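seq:
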Amino acid sequence: MTTPNWNLALQDLPTRCDVLVVGAGPSGSACAKLLAEAGKQVVLVDAQAFPRDKVCGDGLVPDTHAALQRLGLLDAVLERARAAKTAHCVAPSGGAIDVPGALAVLPRRELDAILCAAAVKASAVMAAPVRFDAPLRHASGRVTGALLSQSGQTRAVQAHWLVLASGAAPATLLAAGVCERRTPSSMALRAYVRHTGTSLNSLHFVWHASLHGGYGWVFPGPGHSFNIGVGVMASAREAAGSNGKRPQNLRSLFETFVEVDPLARQLWRDGEHLSELKGAPLRCDLDGSLWTTPGLLVVGDAAGATYSFTGEGIGKAMETGIAAAECLIAGGDDPAIAAAYTTRLHALKPRFDMYRKAASFNRHPWLLSLLVWRAKGSPRMIARFADILGERRMPGTLLSWRGVRALFRG
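struct:
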């Protein structure tokens, strides 16, 4: 990949632009790329210089493939990613099923670099490391840009619109006055190892009674690397609070995972450790922040674009960034753009709500075991799971109590 003209100094930024995007992850870079291609003058900033690491499972599932296709970047990403054929799901009972789908794994350091470089190639001006300090506002209260800083220097950048793609951490949302919940919905922890003697063609998910409502994963990456991690979704944290027990420490959860899962244990014990364990918060369910305020749109993990139950958020983050760009390109006054973007997110909300309800299954290991037991040897049920993974079917038709009862009727 040709070295992009990114990581510019703060002083090299223009003082005015059409759209200022804060955050160069998947949602921000997707938004910036489409806006720049449409002829908008775009400034893109990030708190870290690129390329940079990002804590994530790195799994690219079908909605991510679709978003990358919309951006014209799917082939470029898949050339560097490790393809996988199925999602291998292990129930607490030890039973397992393989759900086919369009799947791949690429570390976020590489994925985000591809997306950001594409935005720069499309003419977005990217500066980093740059901190967002505060929004600029008109006397009416409308956001008109942002005050940015770098190494003690500050710069005011006026913009017709500000897009916040700043991730799950609440600081930027608080500074912009759009944070409705400081605490994250969920937490995740992961590390990388290399093991040349292990072959894995699936995204390996493990639910185990010892993980206390969380789950573990092993995803095969490029160059014999593996992403090993654990997550505790919202329902598990809520359940722990309701029964008086504290949520399990993530490092303890990880240690338990590599004890109870043979694959994770082998990789962690015998593999070459490529990174330390790193954790990150998640915002789920399109909840926890305002989506719009005059002159400002919130996208990606900042808007809660991560599914409960699975913790998948790359594809939906890009979808929200794409939606914001398309609404801004279509134009109109503030209320029209805000209404169009809100409509786009409301169209996604039922799917998020279904995954939130499905996350309650983490409280009932026996039910997950029952579902996997019922699906084993049933091409019809495997096809239904594949339809959910590919977003051809709403998860509520299967991952709900009524859906489970329907399955056992036929």
